[in-house]
Design a protein that fits this description.
Elements: H1 11-21, H2 31-40, H3 45-55, H4 59-70, H5 74-84, H6 104-113, E1 115-118, H7 124-138, E2 158-159, H8 165-170, H9 174-184, E3 189-191, E4 196-199, E5 227-232, E6 244-245, H10 249-257, H11 266-273, E7 277-278, E8 286-290, E9 295-296, E10 306-310, E11 313-315
Antiparallel strand pairs: 1-8, 2-4, 3-11, 4-10, 5-8, 5-10, 6-7, 6-9
Helix pairs in contact: 2-5
Bound molecules: 2-oxoglutaric acid.
């Protein structure tokens, strides 16, 4: 029996919990609904799975954890409940009509290349605040290279800082919500609770660890839209560990797939045969890419770390391909 005084009153959360606790006992949520649910509760997918599988909480404990972790507001919970019930909800940041988003040229670039740079997605001071928060979290100093290879980073470019106020604030930048609304053609979007990243200059004991060229998407057909994004929190040159991708590949994936030898995995074949282009951009710019572009980061051969924040926005419901082919 749920204690209604603490219940979040979102029945999909119970389904999600039950599926993780006892797989096979209840029908899983559709993947788009599951993503909206977690994003709407301000939860990171990995931290939630880790908690559920490690602590194995009962449902009441899980709900209490959700409240404490995501700190969803009553307004955000109400929006989520309405969306889960199938009601039309608008943009989380209010009316986007008068917000400047992607230009016609940007949208043409997106169609052709499968990525776009949203200039000044966030203000430079907001980017710098998040940049400094990431250094701080790692116990590093921005201008002191001796601090850039601390244990806190390990041999990875990912920084699991999820809820620093500076990173949180960036998730509500109207220009970002507008750009994603333009790409999806709708504004009932849910922003992911993603981490930060720091890709320092390579050195003898710290070679670039990846991510190398990959897809996070299924390569099975039908090939449908999904979108990923990264905000540069300080200027990034092409040789500074820039985000990299194979521009235009979303249009040629289908033909390319027929060239993959039968006994080789598509990801391996892609790594051997495709060349990525590094994308330079300025502090506060966001690169948004189609999930069917092969992409990765790149070795930093410059003098300063590349510091970034990852983020994407997706609608409550969208068409996706169930079969996994990778
Ligand atoms: O950090 C980058 O430049 C690449 C990010 C990436 O590969 C990803 O988000 O899947």
């Amino acid at each position: 029996m749920i204690d209604m005084t603490t219940s979040l009153d979102i029945k999909e959360l119970r389904t999600y919990w039950a599926c993780q606790r006892e797989p096979g006992t209840v029908a899983p949520l559709p993947r788009d609904v599951e993503k909206a649910l977690l994003a709407g509760l301000r939860l990171n997918v990995l931290e939630t799975l880790r908690y559920l599988h490690h602590d194995r909480p009962d449902f009441d404990a899980f709900e209490a954890w959700v409240r404490a972790q995501g700190e969803p507001t009553e307004a955000s919970l109400d929006r989520l409940r309405r969306a889960m019930a199938g009601d039309a909800v608008g943009a989380e940041v209010g009316d986007l009509d008068h917000v400047d988003g992607l230009s016609a040229d940007d949208l043409a670039h997106w169609d052709e290349h499968g990525y776009v740079i949203l200039r000044n997605a966030i203000a430079p001071h907001a980017a710098e605040a998040a940049e400094l928060a990431i250094y701080d979290h790692l116990g590093m100093r921005r201008d002191d290279p001796d601090t850039w290879y601390r244990e806190s980073l390990g041999h990875s470019i990912w920084v699991p800082l999820l809820r620093h106020p500076a990173l949180v604030a960036n998730r509500f930048a109207p220009r970002i919500h507008k750009a994603f609304a333009q790409l999806w053609g709708r504004d009932d979007l849910w922003v992911t609770i993603d981490q930060g990243g720091l890709n320092p200059p390579e050195h003898e004991h710290w070679p670039f660890p990846g991510p190398h060229l990959h897809w996070d998407a299924t390569l099975a057909e039908p090939h449908l839209l999904d979108v990923q994004g990264i905000i540069y929190l300080a200027d990034v040159d092409e040789d500074q560990g820039a985000f990299s991708c194979v521009p235009g590949f979303h249009r040629t994936l289908k033909d390319w797939f027929t060239t993959v030898p039968r006994d080789v995995s598509p990801q391996d074949h892609a790594r051997r045969t495709l060349t990525m282009t590094p994308i330079a951009a300025k502090r506060g710019d966001m690169i948004i890419w189609h999930h069917l572009l092969p992409h990765g980061s790149s070795p930093n051969r410059a003098r300063r770390p590349r510091v970034a924040q990852y983020m994407s926005l997706r609608p409550t419901r969208y068409a996706y391909t169930d079969e996994w082919l990778g």
